[in-house]
Specification:
Lipid_A_modif_metabolic_enz, NAD(P)-bd_dom_sf, 39% helix, alpha/beta, 13 strands, Rossmann fold, NAD-dependent epimerase/dehydratase family protein, globular
Length: 345
């Protein structure tokens, strides 16, 4: 029976993973930590409002006898947070989480770190597919990439110092799904898919359900080391546009792209530097190692894009549906613990 701690419970991934673990009878206890309220409904996950201060996390880990820590906090889209806040969360926060897991008296025996393919970067001389043994061929080009490399390397250093702990790093390609809001999903939701003149980059998209599935798979199995998490199949951006039923519009100039995309901010469209580099060069990940561990992707890149296209068509109906979930501590405690609440036997 596992006792799991999820960091970043208020994030989309933290909440989705907690919901998945709640279905698993082999998970005895689930504790989620975050500075903000959970964003989805949870039944048996205990929420503690706390940041990544290592002393506080260590107290929780020891008090709850946590044996598995899953770190889902990593910011992989610089449009979602200021650079300083992203650095604090990605680098300082990761080091604090690792510090809370270490020590000779720690009950932690497994750490799963949700990382990103931004670790490899995007360059004109990249290999067709990055394997886990490869490092990026050039220094980080953006602050976000630099932070992700530093956080990822800190996890590898922790693994080397704590041989008794199974440490799994999952480097995910770009996620896509009906409930996932990223810079890529916003660009693909435009009337035409923008591109850079003279470039038609390779794309890999992993469905949001497969991201949750891969994290769950790593939590329930011993997978030491680094694993690329990307589905089968690669599409060029013009093919993605075609599957979405939209024109491909490579109108951005190959020089001065930053200035051209900066002008889009006036209409609410922000294209981070790491996304601009992907619009130019693209990227591919070799997924054979993760599949050899027993994990099976539910959708290919093509099928993920097709499902996203269907979700875009249904978006008006989805938006007119039920109100979003709102966490209220008093209500949650009543529903969980009150003897007046009838529960299924």
């Amino acid at each position: 029976m596992s006792r799991v701690l999820i960091t970043g419970l208020s994030s989309y991934w933290g909440g989705r993973l907690a919901q998945e673990l709640e279905k698993d009878e082999s998970v005895e206890a689930i504790v989620g930590v975050s500075t903000e309220d959970p964003s989805c409904q949870l039944e048996r996950t205990e929420f503690v409002r706390v940041g990544t201060h290592h002393a506080l996390l260590r107290r929780i880990v020891h008090a709850a006898e946590i044996d598995t820590v899953i770190d889902t906090r990593l910011i992989v889209d610089s449009a979602t947070a200021p650079a300083k806040a992203a650095h604090e969360q990605n680098v300082i926060g990761t080091m604090n989480v690792l510090a809370a897991c270490g020590g000779p008296d720690s009950p932690v025996r497994k750490v799963v770190f949700k990382s990103s393919a931004h670790y490899y970067g995007c360059e004109r001389d990249d290999p067709s597919f990055f394997t886990e043994q490869m490092r990026r061929p050039h220094p980080p080009r953006t602050r976000l990439e630099s932070d992700i490399v530093e956080a990822d390397d800190a996890v590898q250093d922790f693994a080397a110092r704590n041989r008794h702990v199974t440490v799994t790093t999952l480097r995910f390609c770009n996620g896509l799904g009906p409930d996932l809001h990223t810079s890529h999903s916003r660009l693909l939701s435009l009337p035409a898919v923008p591109g850079i003149l003279g470039f038609d980059p390779r794309c890999q998209f992993i469905h949001e359900d497969d991201i949750v599935g891969a994290l769950h798979h790593a939590a329930m199995n011993d997978l030491p080391g680094v694993y690329n998490a990307a589905p089968d199949g690669v599409l060029v951006l013009s093919e993605v546009a075609s599957l979405l039923g939209k024109p491909y519009a490579p109108l951005l100039p190959p020089w001065g792209t930053s200035l051209a995309t900066a002008a889009w901010s006036a209409v609410g469209i922000r294209v981070p530097e790491e996304v601009r580099r992907q619009l130019r060069y693209g990227r591919g990940l070799d997924n054979r190692k993760l599949k050899m561990s027993g994990f099976r992707f539910s959708l290919t890149t093509r099928e993920t894009v097709q499902e996203f296209a269907a979700a875009l068509r249904l978006a008006p109906l989805r938006e007119s549906g039920e109100a979003p979930y709102r966490y209220e501590r008093e209500v949650e405690e009543f529903l969980r613990w009150s003897p007046s609440v009838r529960r299924d036997e």
